[in-house]
Design a protein that fits this description.
- The structure holds 2 protein chains of 2 kinds.
- Chain A is α+β, with helices and mostly antiparallel strands.
- Chain A has one domain: Alpha-Beta Plaits, CATH 3.30.70.20.
- Chain A has 2 helices and 5 strands.
- In chain A, the strands form 2 sheets. Chain A has a 3-stranded antiparallel beta sheet, with helices on one face. A two-stranded antiparallel sheet of chain A has the order 2-3.
- Chain B is mainly alpha-helical.
- Chain B is built from 18 helices and 14 strands.
- In chain B, the strands form 6 sheets. Chain B has a 3-stranded antiparallel beta sheet with strand order 3-7-10, with no helix packed on it.
- The two termini of chain B are 39 Å apart.
- The mean pLDDT of chain B is 95.
- Classes of the chains: A alpha+beta, B mainly alpha.
């Protein structure tokens, strides 16, 4: 059976996020932030393959190392 | 720097650094590079004595050593003895003076949650029209002359008005706010009398403002603080004044330094200026790169229990300068750290600090930088320094150029 690229799933660790909002600035359709600036991955963290590079940018720009790939890596 | 008393020359930067040495204030990066190689956490007995970390990983670790590295004393230069005694007495009675920045857990969190909503992405978006109109009106004031001081006539005019607008106080008093904050934070570092005077001036101003808002509450942060509760109790005026004090002081010379540094950079790097003009879509990464490269803020921590970091034993009572600017130049983390790369895609800089004390106003600062630079590039043609030798820098707690005289042509649309 032919398999497409494996979907990536990401997570924002709420214990590490301090509200820098870099992820939200880089990919507002992948992350949402509350009034305290704390971030959460939208769509339960599911990243469509065509948005994976943007998710990786968010991960690599987080000063708290709060975002990680939990599936598909 | 004309306000700093002459001190003896530095013999060894690893054991005797001087944050007010003219070479250090002008360009500390080569000194950090040297220290990172041979003594990554330097020490000095000058200015009250302190430790100076220079590696990214050490800064990342140190912000998480809470409360062993306490925020009760965040001033890079300790207060003069008379003020120190007063602050100790006040802390006994009231707790942290300017929470959340000068508070440790558990006192820190409720104050942090009180102020963060004023600076959320949504709240900051609502300040864009005011900021943009302000930038345009400032440029209207000097564009016909073909020259201006990008620091004094532009950057320094923007940030006090924007924070005043956010706080619901009179932006028309911006020049006074600038005088107060410079007196407290910049000149006050080496002139204790000035520090004491302006601390009093700012506190008195907010005492009056709080009384006024108690009588006439509105939809503004001061009124919100008056109504706020911690553990079911309203705040006393000492705390409300302290939080307001923090919000005003932290919002002025920090971002003004960043905008000034950015315009100085573009005035002295025509290739970057031309590139940003040709590729305005680079503005967001360019702003992050300016923040990385010219990070203005160093905060201090007070050691409250013995801790070891990278082989250095810190003892209670020691002071640590949280050298976020040096971390941003660490070659272990940043490719070509001493080169400004306007489209740097991966930029995990820590100009706004880290951890529980991450700059609460970082969204506002970023917005001000973006709007200020966008509007400047939109209206002002190619610009260059008129007197390349006349750039003066402030250093210590907040580093940035205080005068950036430029001449320019009209923008070509």
């Amino acid at each position: 059976m032919k398999r497409g690229p494996r979907a990536v799933r990401i997570k924002v660790n709420p214990d590490l996020c301090e509200g820098h909002n870099r992820c939200f600035a880089l990919a507002p359709d992948l992350f949402e932030v509350d009034d305290y600036g704390l971030s959460r991955a939208r769509h339960d963290g599911a990243i469509p393959p065509e948005r994976e590079e943007q998710a990786r940018l968010a991960i690599d720009n987080c000063p708290e190392f709060a975002i990680s790939v939990i599936e598909g890596d | 720097m004309t306000d700093v008393p002459e001190t003896c020359p530095v013999s060894d930067w690893a054991t005797d650094y001087d944050i007010f040495d003219p070479d250090y204030v002008h360009d500390p990066a080569p000194i950090w590079d040297e220290l990172r190689m041979r003594c990554p956490i330097a020490h000095t007995t000058r200015w009250g004595g302190s430790w100076l970390p220079t590696r990214y990983d050490d800064l990342q670790a140190m912000v998480r050593m809470v409360p062993a590295l306490s925020s009760r004393s965040t001033a890079v230069v300790p207060p003069p003895p008379a003020l120190r005694e007063q602050l100790v007495a006040e802390a006994k009675k009231y707790g942290a003076e300017t929470p959340p920045i000068s508070a440790d857990p558990p006192e820190h969190k409720p104050f942090r949650r009180m102020i963060l909503p004023f600076f959320s992405p949504r709240a900051v978006e609502a300040q864009i029209p005011y900021t943009r109109a302000l930038c345009h009106s400032l440029i209207d004031g000097f564009i016909a002359k073909g020259e201006a001081d990008a620091a004094v006539d532009y950057a320094q005019q923007i940030t006090p008005r924007v924070i005043a607008y956010v706080l619901g106080i009179d932006p028309g008093r911006a020049d006074e706010f600038v005088e107060w904050v410079r007196g407290l934070l910049e000149l006050g570092q080496t002139q204790p009398a000035m520090r004491i005077k302006y601390r009093g001036v700012i506190r008195d101003f907010f005492k009056d403002m709080v009384a006024e808002r108690r009588a006439n509450p509105g939809d503004d942060p001061i009124s919100t603080l008056i109504e706020a509760e911690v553990e079911g109790k309203k705040l006393d005026d000492y705390k409300i004044v302290g939080v307001c004090f923090l919000l005003l002081v932290a919002g002025i010379d920090t971002t003004w330094s960043s905008i000034s540094s950015s315009l100085l950079h573009f005035a002295t790097h025509p290739e970057d200026q031309a590139r940003l003009r040709a590729e305005p879509e680079l503005l967001p990464t360019a702003v992050e790169e300016m923040l990385r490269f010219y990070a203005p803020v160093t905060m201090a921590r007070k050691v409250t229990e013995p801790v070891e970091i990278s082989g250095v034993a810190l003892q209670p009572g020691d002071k640590v300068l949280m050298n976020f600017p040096a971390a941003n130049r660490d070659p272990a983390v940043f490719d070509r750290p001493d080169k400004v790369v306007l489209d740097r895609q991966r930029n995990r800089h820590i100009a706004f600090g880290l951890g529980i004390h991450r700059c609460a106003g970082s969204n506002l600062a970023r917005m001000e930088m973006q709007v200020a630079l966008h509007t400047w590039f939109d209206r002002i043609g190619t610009f260059e320094l008129t007197h390349p030798d006349s750039i003066t820098w402030a250093g210590g707690q907040v580093r940035g150029p205080r005068s950036v005289p430029v001449r320019f042509g009209a923008a070509v649309c």
